[in-house]
Amino acid sequence: MNTYRSRVSITLVSIIALAFLVPVFPALYDGDFMFIAIMLAVMTMTLSLLFCIKYVIDGSTLKIYTLWFHQDIDITTITKVEPSRCMISAPASSLKRLAIHYGNGKVVYISPRNQDDFINKITTIAKL
Q1: Domain boundaries, given as residue ranges, for the chain
Q2: Which end of the chain has a smaller Cβ tally under 10 Å, C or N?
Q3: What is the number of other CB atoms lying within 10 angstroms of the CB of residue 16?
């Protein structure tokens, strides 16, 4: 069993943080500390989602774990693994992603930290 954490992009973290912090500055001026506390709590929870994504290769199964869901993909059904910068919502914390094509035209975008090792293991099992 091999476990790969998701690569975390500083760009993605910055965009999310800015989206929450920009409204905080006027609230500081107004003294609305309840709003500030709520925004900072929601920002912290949102950013923590980026750091809990992992991918596990367990035998011939690729398991994708996030905080809220778990997906299993039979590696023998994978037809292609290719680099991608697709910005579609995906279980990936970076924009440097891999497109995993599997099954009947399905695609999942992931961003393992050690992409070369990950690709080697997947392609060996899938016999690509």
Answers
A1: 1-128
A2: N
A3: 15
Alpha-carbon distance of 50 to 7, in angstroms, equals: 9
Mean pLDDT of the chain: 93
Segment holding 104, helix H or strand E: none
Average pLDDT over residues 55-75: 95
Q: What is the pLDDT of residue 95?
A: 86
The reported pTM is 0.83
Q: What is the pLDDT of residues 36-45, one digit of tens each?
A: 999 999 999 9
CATH label, 1-128, candidates 3.30.70.100, 3.90.1150.10, 2.30.29.30, 1.20.81.30: 2.30.29.30
Where helices occur in 1-128 by DSSP H, the ranges are: 10-21, 24-30, 33-50, 115-126
- Give the C-alpha separation, 41 to 2, whole Å: 33
Q: Under a CB-based contact definition with an 8 Å cutoff, are residues 26 and 18 in contact?
A: no
